[in-house]
Design a protein that fits this description.
The termini are close together. This protein is an alpha+beta fold. Helix 1 (61-84) runs antiparallel to helix 2 (92-118) and helix 6 packs antiparallel against helix 7. Helices cover 36% and strands 19% of the residues.
C-alpha cells in the first residue's frame, strides 16, 4: 500500500556528455545537453539532448546542438502550463504542434541565422569541410544540423519528443522500462531527421504521458552514441533498471558523479560522442 504525498517530490535533473575518441584530436564534442531548471516550480522541469551531425557538411553542428537544447528547454518551460491544463475538447496533437514544436524549430532557425550573422563562415571552416562559400550560403542551416531529444515534466503530466535518432526511455521502477519511440524504419544506415530540414517540426515524434501512480518517475534521454554502444536492441531495459536502483538506493548526486566514467566506456566502444540526460522524481514511499 502506498500513500500519495500532499506535495509530490521535486523533479531533479542530471546528465553528462563525453567526447568520443574519434573527436579527441582537436575536434569538439558535437553533442549538447541542458540540465538547469528554468522554471521556479520544483514540480516542473525541461531537459534536452542534441546530437550535432558528424558529416563535414555540418561543420557547425556543435553550435547547432547547443542552440537546440537552449531553445527547446526555453520553449518547453513556457509550454509546461499549457501541457498541464490541456483541454479535453481540443486536439492535443494540434496544440503540441502549434505551441511547442513549431516554436522550437522556428526559434532555432532564427537563432542559427543570428549566430551566422554575428559569426560569418570562415575560410578555414569551409576549407576543412571542402565546401566553397557560395555553396555554404545557399543552405546556411545545413552547417548547424542537429537532432533533438526533449522531455518536459510537471506534477501530473509529461511530454517526450524526438526529432531524429537517439532514445527516450521512461521508467517507474515497478514495471519494465519503455522505449517511448521505436526505430524509424524509413531511416536507414546513418540517415536521420534534423532541425536543419525544411518543415522540421513535421518529423517530430511526441508522446503525452499522465503521471499517476503507474506513470514514469524517470525519463532518460540518450544520444545515439550511447545507444549504439550496446549490442542488445533492448539495452534500455537493463540500463534503466540499474540506474533506477542506484537512484533509489544512492541518490541522484551519487549517480551524477559517476555517470561520466560510465559514459567513457560507451564512448570507447563506439568512438562517438556520448550523452545521457535524465529527469528523476523519487518514487512514492510505502506507508508505515
Amino acid at each position: 500500500m502506498v500513500t500519495t504525498p500532499a506535495t509530490p517530490p521535486p523533479w531533479v535533473a542530471f546528465g553528462a556528455s563525453v567526447t568520443g575518441p574519434a573527436h579527441a584530436h582537436g575536434e569538439s564534442n558535437q553533442d549538447a545537453l541542458y540540465l538547469q531548471r528554468r522554471s521556479a516550480d520544483p514540480g516542473r522541469l525541461a531537459i534536452a539532448v542534441s546530437d550535432g551531425h558528424g558529416d563535414p557538411r555540418y561543420f557547425r553542428s556543435d553550435r547547432g546542438a547547443q542552440l537546440a537544447v537552449d531553445v527547446a528547454t526555453h520553449v518547453a518551460d513556457r509550454f509546461a502550463d499549457r501541457l498541464e491544463h490541456l483541454p479535453a475538447t481540443e486536439d492535443p496533437a494540434a496544440i503540441v504542434s502549434a505551441d511547442l514544436l513549431l516554436p522550437i524549430t522556428e526559434t532555432w532557425t532564427r537563432s542559427v541565422r543570428s549566430d551566422l550573422h554575428s559569426h560569418p563562415f570562415e575560410d578555414a571552416e569551409l576549407d576543412n569541410a571542402g565546401i566553397d562559400q557560395s555553396t555554404a550560403y545557399e543552405e546556411p542551416l545545413l552547417a548547424y544540423g542537429a537532432t533533438l531529444l526533449l522531455a518536459v515534466v510537471t506534477n501530473t503530466v509529461a511530454l517526450a519528443g524526438r526529432l531524429g535518432d537517439g532514445d527516450v526511455v521512461g521508467l517507474n521502477g515497478r514495471a519494465p522500462a519503455e522505449q517511448l519511440f521505436p526505430h524509424d524504419p524509413d531511416l536507414v544506415a546513418n540517415t536521420t531527421h534534423s532541425l536543419c530540414e525544411p518543415d522540421a517540426a513535421r518529423y517530430f515524434l511526441t508522446r503525452i504521458i499522465r503521471l499517476d501512480d503507474c506513470g514514469p518517475n524517470m525519463f532518460l534521454l540518450a544520444s545515439d552514441g550511447y545507444t549504439n554502444s550496446f549490442a542488445e536492441h533492448d539495452w534500455y531495459s537493463t540500463v534503466a533498471s540499474d540506474l533506477m536502483s542506484h537512484l533509489e538506493r544512492d541518490g541522484h548526486q551519487w549517480v551524477a558523479e559517476r555517470l561520466p566514467e560510465w559514459l567513457e566506456e560507451s564512448a570507447r566502444a563506439t568512438g562517438d560522442d556520448v550523452t545521457v540526460c535524465a529527469a528523476y522524481r523519487a518514487g512514492l514511499a510505502p506507508s508505515s
